[in-house]
Amino acid sequence: MNRGMSLGTSRGIDRGPNRRSVLAAAGLTAAGAALAAAVPPNAHAAPGSFRVPVEDARHTRTWMAWPDSTAIWGGRLSGVQADVALIARTIARYEPVVLCANPGSAARARSLCGPAVTVLTSVPVDDCWMRDTGPVFRTDGRGGLDAIGLNFNGWGNKQPHARDALAAGRIAAWAGVPFTRAGLVGEGGAVEPDGAGTLMATRSSLVNRNRNPGKTEQQIGAAMCEAYGASKVIWFDGVRGQDITDNHVDATSRFLAPGEALVQLPLATDTDDYARDARRQYGILSTATTAAGQPMDVLRLQGPDYDRIRSTNPDFLASYANFYLCNGAVISAHFGDAGADEAARATLTRLYPDRVVEQLNIDRLGAGGGGIHCVTQQQPMA
Question: In the record, what terms sit under GO molecular function (predicted)?
């Protein structure tokens, strides 16, 4: 995910740290720092045939988390909670949703999410970004399921994360599946798998001393491949230091299937760092091959005009590519640029003709630099 992707828009706004990195400047808790330091440096995922499937595989459930920190969200907390609840209720029409909430905020979560969403209080959380903090589930094609933890460290110790650092292991325990820590520090939004051996990622996020000091790109790539059951990484340069994630891939480039990728491209008039990087991602994928040596088919998804969207927040993430696939549906967003919103709906409908395309107004969450994919994590069927 790229929570700062929207900062350089057609308004000509100079990109800087987004809302979440500014609030995180209040400091990392001592407990969170100790947890990050305690991650075994040489822990590796179990070898074998386990692999992270592509997102459109059937799910057992979707995992989400409930934000309740005014230290992080300030006066915007209630609006963000309403958006998270809307996403949870929508997904729950198609598959089970389990939402992790702290005991003190569980009643509000249940009230806003409704009875179709299961609220779980045994997995405490710091924030709502389950894509980054939750376990990455893997299947072996023979009925086996396990989970990998990516050693979440608050996007390079930019935000308190004592509870979020433990969420992946606690969720795996609740689900009753084996859990192993990966041999790198990262986040689920930083890695995009095709389910058949190929990964996409940005160097700015992972080949970064705030996550993986002393590790080379080759070492990080090998650890990613071991964790995801892959054999090839397609690297993009990304954009370093301008948003809290250091430019996650899942708001720009996504895999639709092995050998088929989708890239959200900016308007021709957008010339900021993120726009240039998106064009470079498209160019790299256009000449790339998969782990199996197959040429990549790259499709375009046109981003909106930031002068026409509803939000005027300079940190707003207007990413159609940050959609989430659940059983029978594509959960995406609309931003108020009517033409671009409808074109995105038409593209997703064409790409997923057997699924309902749900477009939601999540402007409060978007103003925090996140999207629908950012707050969800799938548990695939074994």
Answer: agmatine deiminase activity; protein-arginine deiminase activity
User: Looking at the domain 19-38+49-380, which fold is it?
Assistant: L-arginine/glycine Amidinotransferase; Chain A (3.75.10)
How far apart CA 169 and CA 155 sit, in angstroms, is: 18
CB-based contacts of 346-353 (< 8 A; 24+ apart in sequence): 347/299, 347/301, 347/320, 348/320, 348/323, 351/256, 351/262, 351/299, 352/56, 352/325
- For residue 20, the model assigns a pLDDT of 33
Which one-letter amino acid corresponds to residue 82? A
pTM of the model: 0.88
Tokens describing residue 380: 């695939």
**Residue 7 carries which DSSP code?**
S
330-341 as b/e: b if 16+ CB within 10 A: bbbbbbebeebb
48-62, 223-237, 328-342: segment of lowest average pLDDT: 48-62
Indicate if 128 belongs to the active site. Answer: no
- Cβ–Cβ under 8 Å, residues 71 and 26: yes
The catalytically annotated residue of 100, 113, 326, 374 is 374
State residue 8's pLDDT score. Answer: 29
